Amino acid sequence: MDGAGGVSSSALEKNVAELTVMDVYDIASLVGQEFERVIDQHGCEAIARLMPKVVRVLEILEVLVSRNHIHPEMEELRLEPDRLRPGRVDRIEKEKKHQKELELVEDVWRGEAQDLLTQIAQLQEENKQLMTNLSHKDINFTEEEFQKHEGKFNI
């Protein structure tokens, strides 16, 4: 805070975008000091109509400056989705790729399972025919011979 010439004349020299609420209070103090000087020299009537208007302008300036300090945070939050969007798109693409790979693996698995089921059905049918052929043969195996031959085929 400066001396009698001004509380903080540096607030008046700042770039508008850099003003803080405290700077607005400093400016209000400077304006108040000037009002006191005019009142001392010319009386209260000289600024009676001007003072409420200046006070209102200072109140508006305070609100705008406080919004301006909130604004960068709001702007940052507004830009957050844009910043996150590329990562989200990449993640979605990876998920789609993994889903396609999973579907391919499932298709291969289903194909192999179907092939095995077909092979089982064929082997069962072949076994059935072999059993039928065996039962129709004229060769009569003794139980001992049957077990002997059966042992050769069981692996």
TrEMBL record:
One of its GO terms (cellular component) is cytosol. GO terms for biological process: cilium assembly; protein transport. Residues 7-94 form the RH1 domain. InterPro entries: DZIP_RILPL (IPR051241), RH1 (IPR034743). One of its GO terms (molecular function) is small GTPase binding. It is found in: Cell projection, Cilium; Cytoplasm, Cytoskeleton, Microtubule organizing center, Centrosome; Cytoplasm, Cytosol. PROSITE patterns: RH1. Residues 106-140 form a coiled coil. It comes from the Eukaryota. Keywords: Cell projection, Cilium, Coiled coil, Cytoplasm, Cytoskeleton, Protein transport, Transport. Belongs to the RILPL family. This is RILP-like protein 1.
